[in-house]
Design a protein that fits this description.
By secondary structure, the chain is of the alpha/beta class. The chain is about 45% helix and about 15% strand. The protein folds into 2 domains: about 120 residues, Rossmann fold; about 55 residues, Arc Repressor Mutant, subunit A (Orthogonal Bundle). It has a 5-stranded parallel beta sheet with strand order 2-1-3-4-5, sandwiched between helices. Helix 1 links the parallel strand 1 and strand 2.
Length: about 210
């Protein structure tokens, strides 16, 4: 059977998807665009094929934050055994802006299309050479879940506090903790989710 590696592309950009398909068209690689880590489970694990998640972190805040949310959610699911098998992960995009909170993942060199193609093929053939993330997957507590849901619904801190029966200060403290867990640098990153970067479902993220 012909070997077929899988690249799961995390990006809303159709041009990027088509470009990667064209770039890898003469290779035993299939490009599959996903927005939620759970979608990866729809593709059976094969001992003969390798899998790579390619996460786009561009300059646009909402898209980049959605990508980092994907990474966090993926880490949680893998720690729970929900996504078995070898699964490499690589970042691409605005490295200067997003490198610090990216969790220790390798970045795709984008010097030219040839280097991109060679890097992807090398990782798919020898995934053990890729760096593993150093960030520990940390699921959210039930209260942090509710605060995140309220934030994504664009509720104010006071509204969230009243609904939970706690003080504004408690909401602020829990929000800081959940941002740290999710790899979000500041409130602007969190607001980026509410402004369009939360297309993927966050159901059961902390359960």
């Amino acid at each position: 059977m012909l070997k077929q590696h899988l690249i799961f592309l995390v990006s809303p950009c159709e041009y990027l998807h088509r470009g990667l398909e064209s770039l890898m068209s003469d290779s035993p690689v299939r490009i599959i665009r996903v927005s939620r880590p759970e979608e990866i489970t729809a593709h059976p694990v094969s001992s003969a094929d390798n899998r790579l998640v390619l996460v786009s972190l561009p300059s646009m805040l909402s898209t980049a934050v959605a990508g980092r949310m994907f990474l966090w959610r993926l880490s949680v699911l893998r720690s729970q055994g929900a996504i078995p098998g070898r699964l490499s992960c690589l970042l691409m995009g605005d490295r200067k802006r997003w490198d610090d909170p990216a969790g220790g993942y390798d970045w795709l060199p984008c010097r030219d299309v040839l280097s991109v193609r060679e890097t992807l093929l090398r990782i798919l053939e020898w995934p053990e050479r890729l760096l593993r993330p150093v960030r520990l997957p940390l699921p959210l507590s039930p209260r942090q879940r509710e605060i995140l849901d309220g934030t994504l619904a664009k509720k104010t801190v006071s509204q969230i506090a009243r609904e939970l029966g706690v003080t504004d200060r408690a909401v602020f403290a829990s929000r800081r903790t959940l941002m740290t867990k999710m790899g979000l640098r500041n409130r602007m990153d969190l607001m980026g989710l509410a402004d369009g970067g939360a297309e993927m479902s966050l159901e059961r993220s902390g359960r």
